[in-house]
């Protein structure tokens, strides 16, 4: 006689912790301060310091074209626009209690939401790998400062991967640790580094405001890169107001501070980015600076934690009854292994391409959820019907983005450049790929919604 066993399902998560599966209730335990400090920490990235060269030289001429004032203003404007967008996404998560990729069931339908989910898993794993490489490099710099010989690089990758994965097992507990201890240390470190760089004088003269919007667009893109994981955390907020306010305030303040530090550090090294880690040299010029840099290196674990955890939560849209802890272990192990084995240089452009996918998609979500009244009937169940028509505004918005700012991938960018020539389209300095792709997707969504409403009204008025 044969017997069959039912698959075991994980028991309930510990009190005040994220649920283990999608079937379990979502605790609403995070305050506005929890959200604010978490997003403030995510707003300052070691990876972003050298990336500020894109703000100073948005067209890739090889030298800064923006003035210091223009670069800082572009950082402020771009960060504000990006964080407000993130704040709206936070509201959707707080209102529905659903993580980001599950939210897309209400927009595209359960089955159609698998496409952006797969793209997001690829993106999150890729960014987690980048962060582990940055953390391990930062640890090597600190070890070299302290001991002379930093030792094998793989050891730092393993340490960073192990700490990151451990934090994902109890994510809400990790957020509380960040609020209580890490944020204060980060604020002190940023204040000292800013004061130290300002005291040495920032050798930056000349430049103009000509390419301001290209620069601001790059900052918007960096902020909006967090869109696919916002609801993974805001779903645990005690209120929509705290989710929105905490994120916008924390991310904006930290993003602007990080941008200013990045511009100043690049000026100190004469914008030499032949070695992407040379930008850290001004931070480690003094013994106190080394300590502050160490704080920022340890804080970088927040970034890898967020990416690894959201990889697992995104995968639950495909595997709703899978144990989150198992998925976190898998995604953390995968990211660590790739950080040891993969050269990420060629993968960076692909990650930016995926990021561009989510800007117009977010526009479709915002219009459908807030403007067209979708929040009243938003269906995040596994039976959510497919809404193929909503893919149209998303695709048009993505095409708009690529037409204005083609992602630099061999063959891909050539196609969009050829299309520009074929239709006689010339990119103007005032054009923002992020804002215009958002506008096209939003307006198309409104048109689709208006058309759908007219069809509904017409059919309801037919004689019976």
TrEMBL record:
Keyword match Transmembrane helix: yes
* Domain of life where this protein originates: Bacteria
User: What is its subcellular localisation?
Assistant: Membrane
Residue ranges with Low complexity bias: 1-19
In which broad location class does this protein mainly occur, judging by the first location in its UniProt entry?
A: membrane
| Entry keyword set | Membrane, Transmembrane, Transmembrane helix
The UniProt entry, under InterPro entries, shows: CodB, Pur-cyt_permease
Q: Where is this region: Disordered?
A: 1-24
Q: List where the protein spans the membrane.
A: 38-56, 68-91, 112-133, 153-169, 181-200, 212-231, 243-271, 283-301, 326-344, 350-371, 391-410, 430-450
Q: How does it sit in the membrane?
A: Multi-pass membrane protein
**PANTHER family, per database record:** CYTOSINE PERMEASE (PTHR30569:SF0), CYTOSINE TRANSPORTER CODB (PTHR30569)
Annotated family: Belongs to the purine-cytosine permease (2.A.39) family.
- Name it: Cytosine permease
Organism field: Streptomyces durmitorensis
Show the taxonomic lineage.
Bacteria, Bacillati, Actinomycetota, Actinomycetes, Kitasatosporales
């Amino acid at each position: 006689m044969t017997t069959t066993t039912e698959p075991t399902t994980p028991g309930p998560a510990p009190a005040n912790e994220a649920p283990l599966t999608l079937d379990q209730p979502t605790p609403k335990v995070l305050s506005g301060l929890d959200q604010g400090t978490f997003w403030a920490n995510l707003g300052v990235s070691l990876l972003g310091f050298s990336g500020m060269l894109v703000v100073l030289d948005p067209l890739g001429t090889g030298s800064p074209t923006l003035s210091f004032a223009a670069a800082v203003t572009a950082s402020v404007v771009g960060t504000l626009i990006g964080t407000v967008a993130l704040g709206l996404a936070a509201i959707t998560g707080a209102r529905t209690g659903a993580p980001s990729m599950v939210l897309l069931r209400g927009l595209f339908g359960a089955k159609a939401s698998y496409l952006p989910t797969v793209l997001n898993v690829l993106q999150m794993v890729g960014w987690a790998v980048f962060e582990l490489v940055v953390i391990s490099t930062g640890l090597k710099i600190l070890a070299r400062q302290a001991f002379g010989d930093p030792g094998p690089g793989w050891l730092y990758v393993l340490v960073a991967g192990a700490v990151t994965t451990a934090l994902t097992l109890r994510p809400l507990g990790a957020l509380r640790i960040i609020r209580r201890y890490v944020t204060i240390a980060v604020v002190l470190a940023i204040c000292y580094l800013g004061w130290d760089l300002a005291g040495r004088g920032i050798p930056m003269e000349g430049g103009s405001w000509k390419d301001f919007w290209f620069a601001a667009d790059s900052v918007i893109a960096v902020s909006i890169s967090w869109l696919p994981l916002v609801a993974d955390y805001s779903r645990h907020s005690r209120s929509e107001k705290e989710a929105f306010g905490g994120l916008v305030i924390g991310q904006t303040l930290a993003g602007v501070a990080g941008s200013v530090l990045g511009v100043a550090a690049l000026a100190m090294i004469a914008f030499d980015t032949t070695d992407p880690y040379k930008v850290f040299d001004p931070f480690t010029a003094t013994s106190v600076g080394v300590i502050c840099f160490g704080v920022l290196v340890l804080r970088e674990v927040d970034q890898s934690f967020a990416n690894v955890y959201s990889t697992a939560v995104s995968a639950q849209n495909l595997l709703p009854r899978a144990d989150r802890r198992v998925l976190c272990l898998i995604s953390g192990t995968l990211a660590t292994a790739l950080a040891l084995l993969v050269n990420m240089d060629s993968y960076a452009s692909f990650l930016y391409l995926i990021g561009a996918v989510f800007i117009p998609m977010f526009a479709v979500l915002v219009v459908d959820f807030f403007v067209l009244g979708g929040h009243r009937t938003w269906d995040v169940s596994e039976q959510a019907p497919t809404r193929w028509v909503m893919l149209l505004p998303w695709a048009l918005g993505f095409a708009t983005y690529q037409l204005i700012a083609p992602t630099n991938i061999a063959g891909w960018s050539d196609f969009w450049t050829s299309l520009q020539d074929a239709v006689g389209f010339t990119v103007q300095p005032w054009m923002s790929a992020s804002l215009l792709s958002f506008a096209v997707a939003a307006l198309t969504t409104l048109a689709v919604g208006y058309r759908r409403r007219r069809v509904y009204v017409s059919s309801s008025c037919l004689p019976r």
